[in-house]
Amino acid sequence: MKKRIVIVGGGIGGTMTANNMVSKLGVEIRRNQVEVMLISNSPWHYYKPAFMYVAFDMYHKAELRRKQATLLRPEVRFVVDEVEAFEFSASRLHTRSGAHYDYDYLVVSTGCLPAPERIEGLAEAGDHFYQFEPARRLAQKLRTIERGRIFITVTFPKTPDVPHQCGIAPIETTLMVDELLRRRGVRDRVEILYTYPSVSQLLRNCLFMQKQTCEVLPQIFSDRDIHFKRGFTLERVDPDARVAHSSEGDSEDFDILMSTPPIRAVDAVINSGVSEAAEDEGWLPTNRRSLQLKGHPNVYCMGDTVDLPISKAGGSCHNQSPVIIDNIAFDLRQGATPAVYDGRVQAIAQMGLEAGMPLWYDYDQDVQPTPPTKVGGLMRKTFNRGVYWATARGLV
Amino acid sequence: MLTATKPQDAAAVLADPDTAAGLRDLAEHLAPLLQTRRLHNVVDLLSATSDFIDMADDQLTQKLAKAFEEVVWAGWSAGNALRSASATAADSEPPTLWQLSRQLNDPEVRRGLFFVIQLLGAVGRQVALEAEIPEDD
Ligand SMILES: Cc1cc2nc3c(=O)[nH]c(=O)nc-3n(C[C@H](O)[C@H](O)[C@H](O)COP(=O)(O)OP(=O)(O)OC[C@H]3O[C@@H](n4cnc5c(N)ncnc54)[C@H](O)[C@@H]3O)c2cc1C
Q1: B75 part of a folded domain
Q2: Domain assignment of residue B105, given as a range
Q3: Closest ligand 1 atom, CA of A112?
Q4: Record's Pfam families (chain B) (predicted)?
Q5: CATH number of this structure's domain A3-111+266-344, picked from the four choices 3.40.50.300, 3.50.50.60, 3.40.1210.10, 3.40.50.720
Q6: How far does residue A126's CA lie from ligand 1's centre (Å)?
Q7: Which CATH code for domain A117-263?
Q8: Is residue B71 part of a domain?
Q9: Would the CB atoms of A30 and B91 count as touching at under 8 Å?
């Protein structure tokens, strides 16, 4: 009987996994023993990190997206539809169009969604750069602000030891704001205040989720006259008074509130009922080594939707994808799942508008910060505009 | 350890016995290149690389990255088409002429043929450009 592998989500995790899966299982696919299907709710694939650049007028829409079908190898059966319900125990899923699909293996890579509405007043008064339209609105403000205060907040999921999306993004964008305002010649009239919550995964009262980076940040910020404050956990925003209140009892006024908002899993994942996450955030309980969904060994989870303590980043997907593919291929061929994820993530942080800092870490080893350089910046820019699409196609 | 902001004191780095040991090893390793002046080439290469990095700006990286994507895309789609066509051709009995001509009923086959004809037209137009040698002025 033909085996079916279904991958849900045509973001970076799902796309590279579909392409590399058909490559790995080329023989079985050719013999018609295996079918690989990708279901995504959008015919478009967005390069999400570029939303950050949209906020700084550095990207056009056509440059940051491609038609999903043009990124897939022809052996992948691509269906544009939205999964509405997962029935993990029956190995079946249901879609919005009314179809249902049975599977032998499932890979869930449905990402996460910003949820500013989870903090009172934030959706009305705050801005963010984690989606295209909000980033455009923020760009409009950053382009025109003449004086006042830009206030930066970071919200972590309520589920213990789960990070927010793309850990380094708040620092990247803070440095970019500083440089943009200098270019515009208004920096001396605009204060930048960067804040970080009291609890960031396992750390307390830091400026970043990893200790070594946290230790070098005060100097980086002071050099650029960026003010910073620890222990500010955004609790409520007063849109009329333009004041942000923290659960530590502090308040700060602002002209622009640039936030890393709360996040959650997508509805279908939350509604599947298997999550143990706090506040209905919906993260899938994932085996940190095999990446199997706990209690459902034929289901694998990756990317932003997992409950692991590892960065919600494309760089994580890039290392998780081969583990999942290997485990599925081994299981099909030999009935074993030996591949292990070590928590590895790599990225090139954008440090200001020009410089870049390559970084990597895993479950055991934190990021070792190195001096940002122009070469790092060029690597990041080349990745953004070219290498990313080769990665999605499974070539890198 | 390197830090993003605070370069280590150069004197302290030089006084460090590990630095001295590392430099001694390096000198030994470099000796053949140094003695034959071949290290000069490497230094020239470094300096050219550095010039390139200095000159590279946003526009250049955008163009290079786009060229990379276009070349990769062309190779990738051609590879995809070749792989899928050769798998079908290898796994089927060779068609009779009649079966082959019936393939033309498939609109995607006609689209592919149309593409090849258009491609030939574009190639022809480019070849024609080569043929026109303007008069000397
Ligand atoms: C501003 C910003 C900057 C970032 N910077 C970096 C960076 O520098 N480096 C880095 O590594 N990462 C970065 N990231 C994070 C990176 O983009 C994500 O971690 C990555 O996209 C996660 O991949 P994923 O496959 O889990 O989910 P996504 O890429 O979000 O894809 C999810 C896909 O699932 C589809 N989908 C959702 N629900 C359903 C459903 N019910 N049915 C069918 N389809 C569905 C969606 O349409 C989407 O295509 C950044 C993100 C943002 C927003």
Answers
A1: yes
A2: 95-132
A3: 30
A4: DUF1641
A5: 3.50.50.60
A6: 21
A7: 3.50.50.60
A8: yes
A9: yes
Instruction: Give pLDDT, residue B133.
Output: 77
Residues B79 and B105 in one domain: no
Q: In chain A, where are the structural domains located?
A: 3-111+266-344, 117-263
Q: What is the 3-state secondary structure (H, E, C) of A155-184?
A: CCCCCCCCCCECCCHHHHHHHHHHHHHHHH
Residues with beta carbon inside 6 Å of ligand 1?
A: A 8-14, 39-42, 48-49, 51-52, 82-83, 109-111, 129-130, 165-166, 169, 266, 268, 303-305, 312-315, 317, 347
3-state class of A368 per DSSP?
coil
| Host H or E run for residue A5 | strand A3-8
Structurally, how many domains does chain B consist of? 3
- CA–CA separation, A330 vs B27, rounded Å? 49
Q: Do A393 and B2 touch (CB under 8 A)?
A: no
Extract the residue ranges of chain A whose pLDDT is less than 70: none
- The dihedral formed by the CA atoms of B86, B92, B94 and B97, expressed in degrees to the nearest 10: -100
Contact at 8 Å (CB) between A379 and A358?
yes
Q: Over pLDDT 90: what percentage of chain A?
A: 93
pLDDT at B19 over 50: yes
Residues B82, B100: one domain?
A: no
Distance of CA A170 to the CA centre of its chain: 12
Q: Across chain A, what does the average pLDDT equal?
A: 96
Looking from the CA of residue A14, the nearest atom of ligand 1 is 25
Q: What tokens does A243 get?
A: 């004041």
Q: Which atom of ligand 1 is nearest to the CA of A42?
A: 47
Tell me the best of A64, A96, A110 to mutate to test the pocket of ligand 1, counting ligand atoms within 8 Å of each CB and taking the most: A110
Cα A321 to ligand 1 centroid, rounded to whole Å: 14
pLDDT at B3: 40
pLDDT in tens, A147-202: 999 999 999 999 999 999 999 999 999 999 999 999 999 999 999 999 999 999 98
- Does the pLDDT value for residue B65 go beyond 60? yes
Contact residues on chain A for B72, CB-CB shorter than 8 A: 386, 389-390, 393, 395
Ligand 1 centroid to Cα of residue A314, in Å, is: 7
